[in-house]
């Protein structure tokens, strides 16, 4: 380490100047270490908070079981009947061939391209 000696000052004054400089450097070093610790604690706290938020989001996003009729147009009537309709010609055929049962009601408009509707009757009567 290089020490500048001022010849116009006494030995005591040069030593005092050197030790004052050393003391201020130690204070700056201590403040830097404290600031770094504070920044690390803040970053850790922020990371923990982010992890908690991500965990809550993932637990919220657990999906319910998708019902078989949700791939079609559907609704539940005020009398609690399930009404399903096809979105296109292929779905219309699937509804009629696969899901139409005895006791269900089939509804279709007399227009080309109209959707097929099935009113599901759970009691079968």
Question: Layout of helices and strands, plus pairs?
Answer:
Elements: H1 11-60, E1 73-76, E2 82-85, H2 89-99, E3 105-108, E4 116-120
Overview of this protein structure:
- The chain has 2 domains: 9-64; 73-120, no CATH class.
- The radius of gyration is 40 Å and the shape is rod-shaped.
- Strand 3 (105-108) and strand 4 (116-120) form a beta hairpin.
- The chain is of the alpha+beta class.
- It has helices at 11-60, 89-99, and strands at residues 73-76, 82-85, 105-108, 116-120.
- The termini are far apart.
- GO terms for molecular function: ribosomal large subunit binding; tRNA binding.
- Keywords: Coiled coil.
- It holds the Pfam family NFACT-R_1.
- This is NFACT RNA-binding domain-containing protein.
Question: Which descriptors apply to this entry?
Answer:
rod-shaped; alpha+beta; 2 helices; NFACT RNA-binding domain-containing protein; four-stranded antiparallel β-sheet; 4 strands; ribosomal large subunit binding; RQC_Subunit_NEMF; 125 residues; tRNA binding; NFACT_RNA-bd
User: Unreliable runs, pLDDT <50, ≥5 residues?
Assistant: none
**Structural class by secondary-structure content:** alpha+beta
**Total count of helical runs of at least 4 residues:** 2
Shape: rod-shaped
> How much beta, percentage-wise?
5-15%
């Amino acid at each position: 380490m290089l020490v500048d000696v001022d010849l116009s000052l006494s030995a005591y004054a040069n030593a005092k100047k050197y030790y004052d400089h050393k003391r201020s450097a130690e204070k700056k070093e201590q403040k830097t270490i404290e600031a770094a610790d504070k920044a690390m604690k803040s970053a850790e706290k922020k990371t923990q908070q982010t992890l908690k938020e991500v965990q809550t989001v993932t637990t919220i996003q657990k999906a319910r079981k998708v019902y078989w009729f949700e791939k079609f147009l559907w609704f539940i009537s005020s009398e609690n009947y399930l009404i399903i309709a096809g979105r296109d010609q292929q779905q219309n055929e699937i509804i009629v061939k696969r899901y139409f049962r005895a006791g269900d009601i089939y509804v279709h408009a007399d227009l080309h391209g109209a959707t097929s509707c099935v009113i599901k009757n759970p009691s079968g009567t």
